[in-house]
Amino acid sequence: MTIDVTFELNGAPATVAVEPHHTLREALRRLGMFSVHYGSDSGETGAAAVLYDGRLASSDVILAASADGHSVTTVESLNVSPDLHPVQTAFVAVGAFQSGYSAGAMILGTLALLEEDPDPSEAEIRDMLSGILDRETAYVKPVEAVKRAAAVLRGEDTEPFAPLVLEPLTDGYRPAPAAGGEVPEASHAVPRLVPSREVPDMAVVGKPEVKVDAVRLAKGNPAFTDDIEPRGMLYAKVLRSPHAHARILSIDDSAARAVPGVHAVLHHGNTPRVKYASGGQSWPNPHPYDQVSFDDRVRHVGDRVAAVAAETVEAAEEAVRLIEVTYDVLPAVYDERFAMDADAPKVHDEDDTTHICDPERNLVHHITAQRGDVDGNLAIGAHAFEQTFRVHQVQQCPIEPHISMAWLDSDERMVVRTATQVPFHTRRMLAPLIDMDIKDIRVIKPRIGGGFGAKQEMLIEDIVAHLAIATRRPVRLELDRAEEFYASRTRHPQTITFRTAVDDDGRLLAQEMAIIGNTGPYGTHGFTVQIVSGLRGLTSYNAAAKRFDCHVVYTNIPVPGAYRGYGAPQAEFALEAHMEDIARTLDLDPIEFKRRNWVKVGDEMDIAPHLGERAVAEEELDEYPKVMSSGIEECVAQGMREIDWSRRGDAAWKAPADRPNIRRGIGFAFCMHGTAIPFLDMGGCSIKLNDDGSFNMLIGATDLGTGADTVIGQIAAEVLGVPLDDIKVYSSDTDMTPFDTGAYASSTTYISGTAALRAAEAVRERLKARAAMLLEVDEPCTIELRDRRAYAADGRSVTLEEIALDSLHWQEQEQIMGTASHVSPDCPPPFAAQFAEVEVDVDTGQVTVTKLVMAVDCGVAINPVTASGQVEGGMIQALGYAHCEEIVLDDEGRMVNPSFGPYKIYRADEMPDTVVYLVQTMEDSGPFGAKAVAEIPKDGVAPAVRNAILDATGAAINDLPFTPERVWAALQAQVPPAAGAG
Amino acid sequence: MPLVTAYHRPASLDEALDLLSAPERVALGGGTTLNADRVPSDLEAVDLQSLGLDATTAAGDGRVRIGATATLDAVRRCELLPDSLRELARLEQPSTLRTLATVGGLVAKASAESLLLAGLLAHDARVELAGPASDASLAGLLAGGFPPGSLITAVTVDPSGRTATARTGRTPADVPIVAAYGRRTDGFVAMAVTGVADHPVLVDVGDPTAGLDPAGDFRGSRDYRLHLARTLTARVMQEMYP
How far is residue A249's CA from residue A298's CA, in Å, rounded to a whole number? Predict the structure, then answer.
């Protein structure tokens, strides 16, 4: 039954024919309002929020029919000219958008709020934003944007949004001579920048440039995967296993096929069995290849059983319900600590999966590495410590769920438009599954609404491609929020044991890290994530002897995979808790104890070469990689001042007299991450000159909302002497752009940025040569590019436009262009000091995190605003990991909390204060001195919060997350924080 | 979302009651519960928006009458209501959902974790019903179940008294694991607690866990919830009797 619904849309009447079950979101998108995005069916993400009779409301839960007679406003209402509305401008100016998936909702909420109150309080702003979940910004810059918009609309002047430049507190190498001092005052949204004398001032690099895609996002223009709709598109749905472990005895799809509008039903009985590993990694993907598109065995609740393509979502859902499957339910195992037991069920006993270390014990990999005499040093150490930690399973929660569409183009090539972090890996990995050559597959990565590693996976692209082949129609598949939780990817749970020997001077003699890593039912990233855990767990501190011993096991939990931080957050939680407890046991100041042992400039990262996909033995190695830059002392000094570290000794502050149930504490964590995978991560870039002196830049790098397109554009602009606006960035499309391994491993700025640097340098050489010709200068190397011109040494110049017109149209014509790629032998570590301040309610166990401070040495921040945004967002994701997020399974392996709310992520009206410091160092191997910044914010929050709880209460908690009952139980037990036999 | 097969928008209470007499039809308030339901089931929606039940007014006897289709946002803004109750309305749902969710829907859903429902209980809420059932106390309705064939038209509350709230959650804005809301009037205390039964309950302030046997879940075990109930009610009492 179709209903004609009429409502006022952006000031004009709009009529749309809908079915009774259609939501307003669906109706609006059919009317071309692409700013209204899907985040969940229950409206709690706010990605589809509109103004409904002037009030912010989630259109997901409004029936389209209910909207009849109402007024609906979307952000498209503001797009009446090329210029932005002042509210849009404010969001753009402060860098409030990362992926921008919920940009429309934020702007509309701001409009409504300011209409009601032109000068709202911060609490009112945060309340307005409380219904728009943002996984990226920590709401810091969106709140700033609302304040700025309010000021502008009140007619007040605003300053350009720029970092607060601070004087260093150290000489860069030694601790600050004196603690304390005045804390610099500025909005918390403003990054504090501590410059390095080694870094020259530049025109574009290091500047808070507005993101290249900001206008597109602010206007809600169609940019995301779902924002196009090929004619004749079918909708896919997946039948998922209700069992954690079962054999499929039979599938009867006859009733499903009979549903009107159903075009294909695929399952193991009609789909080729091609083994693969779904992790988006470089060729050759790490073994084992333990997956197929559709199997006759299911290994977790939510595993694929069958897929349907139909004319409508409803028909596809109906068909899925009608597929009859007979299962032989098998026993399951969830806890990695029991997966290797003799009586544990075998997760993989099929004949065609090879390279499982010991399938009888569910042991996928046994990874070991050692340097020095660990057992000997553990035996002679004056103090020996052993602790075990358990870290849990969480989900990445991009607000845009996984979505892909596929079709055969006019040349019968497969086109896949997909929200992926790894378009090139996806193309290569997809080819054998659909029996097509790589050359006949094109993967297009449009704008992505967040990924955080979940989209470093060939997760659903094979399903839409199979269905597109079967139906010869375009096919679209979007996961719903519940599927995103239990049927996409998650963070690996681990059980981690550290053993450490310390001498009487507080120096580490030996450190051993043993991990049981839970890779769930499939290998995917199981090997490499644990490798990174080992890297982060054993390279942060110097010790004469080190050993890594890791068992990676299969279980029947939802599949772990890549998640921002990639094994580091698990390891650094355990390591920094362990080091904290050792310091307390030895009665040493924790920072001083850690400082005594942490790696410094010139120190070897001694176990690193023995871990990884291309690990080498000690005898094969000429020398160990060394730390070449570190700003950790400055980070510690700035962070201590900001958090007011001295309050740890203030009894009145720690136990406020007027709040007898409250204890306060401050915690610290030392953080060290990596920058790209040496000898493996590779990025390419191509730049060409246009008639007007601008440039098209094609990159394979994948901007998830991080600002990568902007940052890489800034690098090229700096080299070419033009403003960023003259660099038109396009990424990424496997037919159009150069290869790139993708957005992961904190590699994009460092690897793809260096590729851009080199491509720009190649273009610059040709520009100089052409300029020398025009200016009749003998030595092109004397030409300088700046301000869109090429200058001779005597001051004469030509514009780049003149060079372009000459080279394209006039004499000795050529297309000036440059192509370059980059792979690095280095992996320069960024460093950071993470601080957390907490209040613990000792009667209930509730922990309130009141402040987070991270001071980061990421080399040279190419764009300090986007870099600080990365740190802010990363910290809050990490806080969720520490504090409130957890995937909870029942005894049957079903996730009991697959929706936001029960699965708790932070929202705007409950945020701690967050302050970010960017401490510059010059990393010579990076583009203009840059290192990584995207993942290190994930590393230190959990241990800093844990150590703050310890400081507040004396309770040492070694399991995550710090939920009220867990903390309360620890307080009841009050286990002393001793870390073993001292 | 359930598969809504038909949509009705009655213009009168009688028409609404007539429509709702068919078992496959469900009253639609703001839609935040019904439309968010992921369990597929065919139903017909009876949208109550045209019944004129959205006003919040002084009831004349010192009570405040909140229309069934008044949104939680309207409750948050209503100056006739005490600040503490308005704050519960703010906490109940985030900004994008409280503009849709209705008081009638809140009562009908009877969520065990509803802060606002606890507040209404403590404020001696009475529920006005259309249809075969007569008006009833909220406490009685929650305990006895919703009478079939009836439609909530309003909730009245006594706004007077000194109030206090205490709650424990994973984060400051989390749906509380357990919360207590107390109201003191002329030596009498009404104390409502969430998270310890199938719906918010009024408890005996002298023995706040008497008769409670909460089901534990991953956020809080049975014993922990009982501990919180004791701790939080004591805090509320302390705040009301400083």
Answer: 11
* Contact (Cβ atoms closer than 8 angstroms) between residue A478 and residue A38: yes
**Domains parsed from chain B with CATH numbers:** 3-47 (no CATH), 56-157 (3.30.465.10), 162-240 (3.30.390.50)
Do A243 and A265 fall within a single domain?
Answer: yes
| Alpha carbon distance A847, A944 (integer Å) | 13
Cβ of residue B109 closer than 8 Å to a chain A Cβ: no
Nearest to B90 among A60, A127, A132 (CB): A127
| CA–CA min distance A46, chain B (Å) | 6
* pLDDT digit string, tens, across residues A612-667: 777 888 778 888 899 999 999 999 999 999 999 999 999 999 999 999 999 999 99
CATH of the domain at A866: 3.30.365.10
% of chain A residues with pLDDT over 90: 92
Q: A733 and A757: one domain?
A: yes
Structure tokens at A4: 């004609």
Residues A428 and A473 grouped into a single domain: yes
Task: Give me the mean pLDDT over the B210-218 stretch.
Answer: 97
| Chain B residue nearest residue A127, CA to CA | B95
Q: Which member of B1, B93, B96 has the closest CB to residue A21?
A: B1
Which residue in chain A has the smallest CA separation from B100? A57
B94 — pLDDT class (breaks 50, 70, 90): very high
Q: Same domain for A386 and A421?
A: no
User: Are A24 and A123 in the same domain?
Assistant: yes
Taking the C-alpha atoms of residue B194 and residue B178, their distance in angstroms, rounded to an integer, is 5
Q: Which residues of B touch A21 (CB under 8 A)?
A: 1-5
Beta strands in A676-716 (DSSP E): 682-689, 695-699
Q: A667 with A560, same domain? A: no
For helices A103-116 and A86-93, the axis angle rounded to 10 degrees is 120
**Those residues with Cβ within 8 angstroms of residue A896's Cβ, 6 or more apart along the chain or in another chain:** A888, A889, A890, A902, B217, B218
**A6, A19, A399, A844: best mutation site toward chain B, by most B Cβ within 10 Å?**
A844
Taking the C-alpha atoms of residue A753 and residue A705, their distance in angstroms, rounded to an integer, is 16
Same domain? For A293 and A348 the reply is no
Which domain does A808 fall in, by range?
682-823
What chain A residue is nearest to B220 in terms of C-alpha separation?
A: A965
CB atoms within 10 A of CB A470: 18
A214 lies in some domain: no
Look at chain A and report how many structural domains it folds into: 5
Q: Are A884 and A904 in contact (CB under 8 A)?
A: yes
Chain B, residues 148-167, CB within 8 A of chain A, namely none
pLDDT in tens, A150-162: 999 999 999 999 9
- Token code pair at residue A562: 């890549």
pLDDT band at A982 (very low <50, low <70, confident <90, very high): very low
Give the type of residue at A227.
D
Residue B28, chain A, CB below 8 Å: the answer is yes
Where is the domain boundary, A785, A807, A823?
A: A823
Determine, yes or no, domain membership for A207.
no
CB A708 within 8 A of CB A716: no
A60/B35 Cβ within 8 A: yes
Q: What is the pLDDT of residues A164-217, one digit of tens each?
A: 999 999 998 899 887 668 899 999 999 999 999 889 999 999 999 999 999 999
**A170 & A270 share domain:** no
Q: Give yes or no for a contact between B7 and A63, defined as CB atoms under 8 angstroms apart.
A: yes
pTM above 0.90, yes or no: yes
Each residue's pLDDT tens digit, B27-75 = 998 888 776 655 567 899 999 999 999 999 999 899 999 999 999 999 9
Residue A976 has pLDDT above 70, yes or no: no
Question: Where do the DSSP E strands lie in A427-489?
Answer: 441-444, 475-478
Kindly state the tokens that stand for A654: 């720690």
